[in-house]
Design brief:
Elements lengths: L2 E7 L5 H7 L7 E8 L3 E2 L2 E10 L3 H15 L4 E7 L1 E3 L4 E9 L2 H18 L2 E7 L4 E4 L3
Parallel strand pairs: 1-5
Antiparallel strand pairs: 2-7, 3-4, 4-6, 4-8, 5-7, 8-9
Helix pairs in contact: 2-3
Length: 139
């Protein structure tokens, strides 16, 4: 199967797991994107955040990964997103693709993270250093 990993997890994400699952002797390229929690957003200090997801989020993520696999000439696709409480520096999301040639993998991985962020119902609740908070990505 081209879609090798799709999941939401409330435990730390492992880049090594993604790389191992995408191992393919026919691939000449693996493009990996790791999204991390940063200490600022729009000029404000961030102290941490929480991710929550709609019950349909894994199903929607699987559909997005499948669409990317069908659209691009890739041999493997992976996408995992954290839920729960994250601290600065924690990995929030990992997407990756493998292909025979780098261009397909670069394009597919970029599309995968962009569509995931736009269409998968995962919401971020940021806590700012000044005591305020903000929800991002909610309907």
């Amino acid at each position: 199967d081209v879609v090798r990993l799709v999941d939401l997890r409330d435990e730390p994400l492992d880049v090594g797991e993604v790389i191992d699952l995408l191992d393919d002797r026919a691939s000449g390229a693996l493009t990996l994107f790791v999204g991390r929690v940063r200490d600022h957003d729009h000029g404000r200090g961030v102290g941490g955040l929480d991710y929550s997801a709609h019950p349909s989020a894994v199903e929607r993520l699987r559909a997005v990964a499948g669409a990317i696999a069908a659209e691009y000439d890739v041999l493997g696709v992976a996408a995992i997103h954290r839920v729960g409480t994250l601290q600065i520096g924690d990995i929030a999301v990992i997407v990756a693709t493998v292909s025979a040639h780098r261009d397909a993998s670069f394009r597919a991985s970029r599309a995968l993270i962009d569509v995931l962020k736009a269409e998968v119902p995962v919401w971020k609740h940021q806590r700012f250093d000044d005591g305020s908070d903000e929800w991002v990505g909610t309907p």
